[in-house]
């Protein structure tokens, strides 16, 4: 379509008819790391506008496919949301996040039409390529998701673009399919080579099987993992994965809290967010569960846990533990490869970058800084910032403590891994196993299981690799969170000027003390984080700093 404001007015008139009769109120939403999220009844127009935006993004990006996912991840069943995916498979570009917020905030049809027309002109969007443009569409298991997905379809088709319906998929599946579609499609092809959810499952099953076979001959029996799927779409993907595994891996994973359980509610007393925050086993966990993996509602996050045999308490393995284990493992592979290159007269430099935020535990950082080939880098809080920094390394890895993260392998590194060396063969397979587009709870689970198998490290030994420093998070309600400004990746306060000296004085009172203050990115509050040598000290430090925040803000 090539018309101006009048034609876009007609489009929005038709879209309004699609959502007629739906109980909806106009809301202004912020596009955060998890996309737009709100109670489901508030989202029809939000979803339709995001769908139009991703169709336009496809047109602007040379008709490469983009993605749209209907999900609210770990939020309650009554909520829903929408995530937008770039043609690279990564999260939405920051400029287009701003555009999405402005578009969603428009109230009248005429304002929407004018806004879209100005976007087309400002971004030089090739609307004549509408017939070639396509959006991959997926949704989760929420009751509201199919209806919202239907509205997204109508919106995409209303601007002349194609919809590729992936149906029930995890968020990482959608990201994978977008990336694989665009990397598989060559300029001379008449149509894109569409990647489907089966391709994702097949890639995981194949690479996981090959890696386990490489480590199996000298290893003992495999541990059975009970996988809590939070009554979400992760159960659909896990069942499909298990069905593709060979007989020798049958029973490696036992899925519970699946999406069709009539007694279960999505994310209620289950899932990664619940296990991590409440530090307890999810409802439905078997009594004999010695190795728990917990996904969140759309399977982009993972935490692991086991019972302490002495007191039966839950021992949690979160994102910081993942980084310590995997950095240690890949450091060892890099050492093998470096020795091989030295022996064969090849001079190459390789490096592993572990990207952390201010929230990463200080004890984990101390361990990482002692590893060969490992460099610790800092980024602002938020996956999009972590990902951007991780892409700068040969092997870049990031994990938030909540269990969202991945390992990224550079194309230049993989191109240098052509020799028939065992460590290089493993590295090539890991690059296929790990989702190169986004954090993926299922792929991360398979990665960790292979590493544990290959190193013969059990959960207890892994848990003993380091002792996290006790930490405390507090939220302080203030009149204006923007009164606080920070630098050094949120670790230092620059305004109010007298606040940081107060924080420094408080930290100095406690052994292994560390703390920072930052305005929330999503709420009108200030967040306080504190670490110290004991839980009592961490609590006291956090409360003391919170009092200073209240006094100065």
TrEMBL record:
One of its GO terms (molecular function) is magnesium ion binding. It holds the Pfam family AMG1_II. It catalyses: N-acetyl-alpha-D-glucosamine 1-phosphate = N-acetyl-D-glucosamine 6-phosphate. It comes from the Eukaryota. Its cofactor is Mg(2+). GO terms for biological process: carbohydrate metabolic process; UDP-N-acetylglucosamine biosynthetic process. It is an enzyme of class 5 (isomerase). Its EC number is 5.4.2.3. Gene3D superfamilies: Alpha-D-Glucose-1,6-Bisphosphate, subunit A, domain 3, Alpha-D-phosphohexomutase, C-terminal domain. Transmembrane segments: none annotated. SUPFAM superfamilies: Phosphoglucomutase, C-terminal domain, Phosphoglucomutase, first 3 domains. Keywords: Isomerase, Magnesium, Metal-binding, Phosphoprotein. Residues 218-303, 318-455 form the Phosphoacetylglucosamine mutase AMG1 domain. Residues 65-94, 129-183 form the Alpha-D-phosphohexomutase alpha/beta/alpha domain. The keyword Transmembrane does not apply. InterPro entries: A-D-PHexomutase_a/b/a-I (IPR005844), A-D-PHexomutase_a/b/a-I/II/III (IPR016055), A-D-PHexomutase_C (IPR005843), A-D-PHexomutase_C_sf (IPR036900), A-D-PHexomutase_CS (IPR016066), AMG1_II (IPR049023), AMG1_III (IPR049022). Residues 502-547 form the Alpha-D-phosphohexomutase C-terminal domain. Pathway: Nucleotide-sugar biosynthesis; UDP-N-acetyl-alpha-D-glucosamine biosynthesis; N-acetyl-alpha-D-glucosamine 1-phosphate from alpha-D-glucosamine 6-phosphate (route I): step 2/2. Belongs to the phosphohexose mutase family. This is phosphoacetylglucosamine mutase.
């Amino acid at each position: 379509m090539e018309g101006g404001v009048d034609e876009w007015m007609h489009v929005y008139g038709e879209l309004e008819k699609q959502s007629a009769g739906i109980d909806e109120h106009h809301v202004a939403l912020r596009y955060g790391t998890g996309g737009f999220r709100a109670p489901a009844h508030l989202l029809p127009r939000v979803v339709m506008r995001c769908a139009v935006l991703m169709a336009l993004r496809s047109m602007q990006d040379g008709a490469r496919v983009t993605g749209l996912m209907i999900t609210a991840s770990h939020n309650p069943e009554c909520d829903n949301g929408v995530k937008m995916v770039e043609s690279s498979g990564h999260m939405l570009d920051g400029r287009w996040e701003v555009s999405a917020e402005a578009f969603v905030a428009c109230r009248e049809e005429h304002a929407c039409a004018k806004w879209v027309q100005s976007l087309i002109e400002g971004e030089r969007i090739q609307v004549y390529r509408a017939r070639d443009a396509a959006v991959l569409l997926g949704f989760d298991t929420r009751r509201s998701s199919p209806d919202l997905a239907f509205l997204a379809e109508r919106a995409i088709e209303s601007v002349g673009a194609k919809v590729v319906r992936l149906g029930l998929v995890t968020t990482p599946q959608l990201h994978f399919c977008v990336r694989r579609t665009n990397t598989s499609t060559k300029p001379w092809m008449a149509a894109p080579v569409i990647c489907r959810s089966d391709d994702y499952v097949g890639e995981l099953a194949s690479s996981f099987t090959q890696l386990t076979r490489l480590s199996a001959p000298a290893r003992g029996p495999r541990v059975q993992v009970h996988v809590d799927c939070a009554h979400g779409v992760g159960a659909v993907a896990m069942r499909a994965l298990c069905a593709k595994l060979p007989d020798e891996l049958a029973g490696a994973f036992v899925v519970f809290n699946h999406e069709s359980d009539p007694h279960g509610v999505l994310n209620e007393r289950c899932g990664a967010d619940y296990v991590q925050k409440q530090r307890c086993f999810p409802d439905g966990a078997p009594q004999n569960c010695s190795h728990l993996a917990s996904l969140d509602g759309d399977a982009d996050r993972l935490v692991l846990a086991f019972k302490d045999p002495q007191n039966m308490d839950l021992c949690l393995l979160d994102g910081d533990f993942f980084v310590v284990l995997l950095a240690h493992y890949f450091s060892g592979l890099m050492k093998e490869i470096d020795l091989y290159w030295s022996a064969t007269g090849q001079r190459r430099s390789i490096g592993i970058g572990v990207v952390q935020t201010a929230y990463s535990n200080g004890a984990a950082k101390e361990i990482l800084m002692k590893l060969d080939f490992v460099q610790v880098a800092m980024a602002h809080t938020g996956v999009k910032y972590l990902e951007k920094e991780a892409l700068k390394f040969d092997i870049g890895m990031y994990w938030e403590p909540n269990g969202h993260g991945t390992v990224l392998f550079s194309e230049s590194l993989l191109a240098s891994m052509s020799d028939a060396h065992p460590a290089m063969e493993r590295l090539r397979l890991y690059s296929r196993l790990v989702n190169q587009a986004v954090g993926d709870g299922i792929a991360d689970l398979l990665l960790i299981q292979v590493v544990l198998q290959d190193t013969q490290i059990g959960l207890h030994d892994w848990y003993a690799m380091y002792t996290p420093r006790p930490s405390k998070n507090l939220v302080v309600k203030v009149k204006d969170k923007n009164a606080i400004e920070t630098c050094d990746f949120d670790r230092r306060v620059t305004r109010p000027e007298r606040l940081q000296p107060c924080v420094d004085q408080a930290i100095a009172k406690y052994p292994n003390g560390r703390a920072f203050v930052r305005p929330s990115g999503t709420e009108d509050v200030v967040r306080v984080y504190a670490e110290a040598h004991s839980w009592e000290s961490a609590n006291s430090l956090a409360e003391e700093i919170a009092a200073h925040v209240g006094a100065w803000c």
